[in-house]
C-alpha cells in the first residue's frame, strides 16, 4: 500500500486517470468556479508593497543592479562597451554607428552631424535606467533616420532658405538658418514620438506591433534601404539636387541622372575608393572572424584617414568636395519644443513610434529567448518613449536599435546595459573633445559608409524566392509593402502595408477550405474524404477551416449545400410545388365530396334538416417527400463540425437557422459538433431554437430517438437542442479528431 501511494506521488496523473467519471446530470450539480463571491485582494489598493512593485516595474534598474554580478559581468561589459564604441559588425556599426554613423545618420535625417552624436548619448543612458533588455543597443537607425529625413525634406526644403546674392539674380543656401529650423522641427517630432510611445505603453498597448508581420517589416526595411541609397547618390556624385519628399519622391533618381554631366570627379573617386576598401575589409573580417579577437574597425579607420587626407590636401578648396563642416563641441541646454509643428507631424510621429518600437521589441525578444530572461513589452515601449521624449529637449532625433550593434554588444561579452553606458561615455568624450576634429570629413565618405552598410538589408531581396516557395500570401504582403513604401514614402507606405496585411486575413477567412470528413479505418479519427475516402453511409460531416461570421456566413451555407451532394433549393422548390398541387387537388376533392354529400343528404332528409358537423378537427400530418412522389435524399443526417469556430455573431446564428430550416424541409437532421461552451450558451440565449438548452436530458437517449446513427459510449457530452429538428452539441476530444464513433 505504501509503495502504491509512493508511486502515485511520483506519477500525479495516475490518480487523475483513475478518478470517477461523472455523467452530465451529476456535473450540473457541482457548483461552478467563482459561483459564490470570494474576497480577493483588490489590485489597485495603495500599500507599500504595491508602491514598491510599481516603482521596480517602472525602473527595472532597481531590481537588477543591486544583484549585478560584478566579478562575472563587469569585465565583459567594459570590453563590450568599448567595442560597441569603436568597432563595427557587417550591416550597421558603432563608432561607426554611435560616432561615424551617428554623423552619417544625421545626414540621412537632414540635420547637423552633431545631432547624431547627441542621439547616440542621451537615449543610451536613459535606456540603461528604464529598459528591460540586457543586450540591445539603442541609438540612431537608418530606417528611422530616413523617415525623419522625409519629414524635414517636405516641411523644411532647401528652397525655403535661399538668400539672394548682393548685386546678382543668384541665390545661395543659408545652411545655418536651415539647420536651425530643421533641428527645431526634428526635436519637436522626437518629443511627439516619445509621447505616443509612453502613452501606448501606459495603456498596455504593447501588442500593437503584432500587426506588423515579419514579411511586412522586412519588405518595409528593404524599401527604406532603397530610399537611403537614392538619398546618398547626390553625395557620391557630388551634385546639387533639390530635395523632394512625399509620394513619388523616389523619382528623384531621374533628376540625379540629368545632373550626371556635372559630377564632381573628386567626390566620385573618393566614395568609390572608400566603398571598395570598406567592403573588402568587411569580407576579410567575416572570413577570418574566428581568428580575429574582434572585427576590424574599418569605418573608424576610413574616417580618420579620409579626414586627414581632406585636411592635408585641401579637398574642399581644390576639388570642391563637400565636407561635414562645423561640429560644435560641448553640450547644449534643453530647449522647449515648438508645439505649432505638432499638427503637421502627428501622423509621421505615430508611424515612427510604431516602427521604432517594432524593431526594438523584436530584437529584444530574440536575445531574451537566447539568454533565458523575459522582456516586458509595455515597459520597453515606455523606455523608448522616455528616451525620445527627454532626448527631444536636447536636440536628439528619434532612435531605435539595430541587429549589428546588438550583436557587437553581445558577442564581445556584454551582459547588461552597463556596456551601453560605457559606449555612451565614449560618445560623450567625442562630443566634448573630439567631434570638432571631423570638420573636414568629406560627406562622400559618410555616404560610402551608409551604402556599404546597407548590404545586409539588400540581402532581404532573397526573401522573394523563399516566400515564393513557402507562402505566396506572405510574398504578396512583402511585395505590396515594398512597392507602397517606395511610391508613397515611408509613413503612408506603412499605413497601406498594415491595411493590406489585415485585408489578407479577412480574405483568407472569406475563402476558407471546406471539406467533408470521413472516418479513418479502424479509428475514431475523422479527416477529409479527399485523403481518406470512407464516408459514413447516410451521414456527412462538414467542416470549415475558419470561423463563421458576417463576412463568410453566406459562403458557408452555399458551400454546405454544394458539399452535401443535394440540390437543396431545387428539392425544396419541387416539394412546395407538389404541396401546392396536392392542396389544390385536396380542395377540389373536398368540393366534389361536399357536393356529393349534399345531394345524398337532400335525398335522405327531404325536409331540409341536416345533422350538425363535428367540431373536432382531423389530425394533420405533414406529407413526406415519398408521399409527394419525390425521391428522398440518401443523406439522413448532417453534422456541422464547429471545432474551428472561435465565435459566432448574429449573422452566423441567422444562417444556422436557415440551414436547419432548409434541411428539415428535405427530412435531413442537422447536428452541431465541437461547439465551444461559451458559443453554445450564446446560441441558446439567442433563441436559435425553442425550447432552449435542456441540461438534464440524456444525450444518448436523445440521439438514439432522433437519428439512425448508433452512438458508441462513452461520449463527452454537451447540451441538446430540439425543436422539430435536433440541434446537437458534442465536444471533440481534440481539434483534430472526434470522439464520435459511428
Automatic annotation (TrEMBL):
Name of the featured protein: Solute carrier family 26 member 6
CDD domains according to UniProt: STAS_SulP_like_sulfate_transporter
SUPFAM superfamilies: SpoIIaa-like
Main location: membrane
Keyword set, alphabetical order: Membrane, Transmembrane, Transmembrane helix
GO molecular function: chloride:bicarbonate antiporter activity; formate transmembrane transporter activity; oxalate transmembrane transporter activity; PDZ domain binding
GO cellular component: basolateral plasma membrane; brush border membrane; cytosol; sperm midpiece; vesicle membrane
Source species: Terrapene triunguis (Three-toed box turtle)
GN (gene name): SLC26A6
Membrane topology of the entry: Multi-pass membrane protein
Amino acid at each position: 500500500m505504501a509503495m502504491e501511494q509512493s508511486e502515485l506521488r511520483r506519477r500525479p496523473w495516475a490518480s487523475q486517470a483513475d478518478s470517477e467519471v461523472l455523467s452530465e446530470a451529476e456535473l450540473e450539480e457541482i457548483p461552478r468556479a467563482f459561483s459564490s463571491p470570494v474576497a480577493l485582494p483588490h489590485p489597485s489598493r495603495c500599500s507599500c508593497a504595491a508602491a514598491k512593485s510599481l516603482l521596480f516595474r517602472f525602473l527595472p534598474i532597481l531590481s537588477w543592479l543591486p544583484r549585478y554580478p560584478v566579478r562575472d559581468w563587469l569585465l565583459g561589459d567594459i570590453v563590450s562597451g568599448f567595442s560597441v564604441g569603436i568597432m563595427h559588425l557587417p550591416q550597421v556599426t558603432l563608432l561607426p554607428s554611435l560616432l561615424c554613423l551617428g554623423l552619417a545618420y544625421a545626414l540621412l535625417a537632414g540635420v547637423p552631424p552633431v545631432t547624431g552624436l547627441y542621439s547616440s548619448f542621451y537615449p543610451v543612458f536613459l535606456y540603461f535606467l528604464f529598459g528591460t533588455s540586457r543586450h540591445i543597443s539603442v541609438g540612431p537607425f537608418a530606417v528611422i533616420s530616413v523617415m525623419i529625413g522625409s519629414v524635414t525634406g517636405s516641411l523644411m526644403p532647401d528652397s525655403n532658405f535661399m538668400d539672394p546674392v548682393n548685386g546678382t539674380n543668384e541665390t545661395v543656401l543659408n545652411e545655418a538658418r536651415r539647420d536651425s529650423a530643421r533641428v527645431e522641427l526634428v526635436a519637436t517630432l522626437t518629443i511627439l514620438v516619445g509621447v505616443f510611445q509612453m502613452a501606448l505603453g501606459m495603456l498596455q498597448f504593447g501588442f500593437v506591433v503584432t500587426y506588423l508581420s515579419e514579411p511586412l517589416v522586412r519588405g518595409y526595411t528593404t524599401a527604406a534601404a532603397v530610399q537611403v541609397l537614392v538619398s546618398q547618390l547626390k553625395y557620391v556624385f557630388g551634385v546639387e539636387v533639390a530635395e523632394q519628399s512625399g509620394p513619388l519622391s523616389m523619382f528623384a533618381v531621374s533628376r540625379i541622372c540629368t545632373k550626371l554631366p556635372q559630377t564632381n570627379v573628386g567626390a566620385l573617386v573618393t566614395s568609390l575608393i572608400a566603398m571598395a576598401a570598406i567592403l573588402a575589409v568587411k569580407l576579410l573580417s567575416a572570413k577570418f572572424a574566428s581568428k580575429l579577437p574582434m572585427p576590424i574597425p574599418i569605418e573608424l579607420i576610413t574616417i580618420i584617414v579620409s579626414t586627414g587626407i581632406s585636411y592635408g590636401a585641401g579637398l574642399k578648396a581644390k576639388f570642391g568636395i563637400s565636407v561635414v563642416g562645423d561640429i560644435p563641441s560641448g553640450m547644449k541646454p534643453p530647449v522647449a519644443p515648438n508645439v505649432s509643428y505638432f499638427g503637421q507631424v502627428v501622423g509621421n510621429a505615430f508611424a515612427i513610434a510604431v516602427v521604432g518600437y517594432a524593431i526594438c521589441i523584436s530584437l529584444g525578444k530574440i536575445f531574451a529567448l537566447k539568454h533565458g530572461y523575459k522582456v516586458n513589452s509595455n515597459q520597453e515601449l515606455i523606455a523608448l518613449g522616455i528616451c525620445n521624449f527627454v532626448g527631444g529637449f536636447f536636440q536628439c532625433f528619434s532612435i531605435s536599435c539595430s541587429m549589428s550593434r546588438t550583436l557587437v554588444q553581445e558577442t564581445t561579452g556584454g551582459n547588461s546595459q552597463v556596456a551601453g553606458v560605457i559606449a555612451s561615455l565614449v560618445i560623450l568624450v567625442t562630443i566634448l573633445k573630439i567631434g570638432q576634429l571631423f570638420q573636414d570629413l568629406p560627406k562622400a565618405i559618410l555616404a560610402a559608409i551608409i551604402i556599404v552598410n546597407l548590404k545586409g538589408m539588400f540581402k532581404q531581396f532573397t526573401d522573394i524566392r523563399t516566400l515564393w516557395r513557402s507562402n505566396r500570401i506572405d510574398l504578396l504582403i512583402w511585395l505590396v509593402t515594398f512597392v507602397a513604401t517606395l511610391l508613397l514614402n515611408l509613413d503612408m507606405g506603412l499605413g497601406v502595408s498594415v491595411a493590406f496585411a489585415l485585408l489578407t486575413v479577412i480574405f483568407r477567412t472569406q475563402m476558407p477550405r471546406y471539406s467533408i470528413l470521413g472516418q479513418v479505418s479502424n479509428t475514431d479519427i475523422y479527416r477529409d474524404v479527399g485523403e481518406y475516402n470512407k464516408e459514413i453511409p447516410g451521414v456527412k460531416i462538414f467542416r470549415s477551416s475558419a470561423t463563421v461570421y458576417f463576412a463568410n456566413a453566406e459562403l458557408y451555407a452555399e458551400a454546405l449545400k454544394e458539399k452535401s451532394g443535394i440540390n437543396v433549393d431545387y428539392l425544396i422548390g419541387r416539394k412546395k410545388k407538389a404541396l401546392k398541387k396536392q392542396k389544390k387537388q385536396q380542395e377540389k376533392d373536398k368540393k366534389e365530396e361536399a357536393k356529393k354529400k349534399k345531394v345524398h343528404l337532400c335525398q335522405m332528409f327531404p325536409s331540409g334538416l341536416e345533422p350538425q358537423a363535428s367540431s373536432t378537427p382531423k389530425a394533420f400530418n405533414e406529407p413526406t417527400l415519398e408521399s409527394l412522389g419525390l425521391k428522398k435524399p440518401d443523406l439522413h443526417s448532417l453534422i456541422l463540425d464547429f471545432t474551428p469556430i472561435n465565435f459566432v455573431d448574429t449573422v452566423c446564428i441567422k444562417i444556422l437557422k436557415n440551414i436547419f430550416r432548409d434541411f428539415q424541409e428535405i427530412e435531413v437532421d442537422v447536428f452541431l459538433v465541437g461547439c465551444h461552451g461559451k458559443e453554445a450558451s450564446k446560441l441558446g440565449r439567442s433563441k436559435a431554437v425553442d425550447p432552449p438548452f435542456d441540461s438534464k436530458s440524456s444525450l444518448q437517449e436523445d440521439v438514439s430517438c432522433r437519428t439512425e446513427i448508433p452512438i458508441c459510449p462513452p461520449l463527452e457530452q454537451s447540451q441538446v437542442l430540439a425543436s422539430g429538428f435536433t440541434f446537437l452539441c458534442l465536444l471533440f476530444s481534440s481539434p483534430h479528431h472526434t470522439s464520435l464513433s459511428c
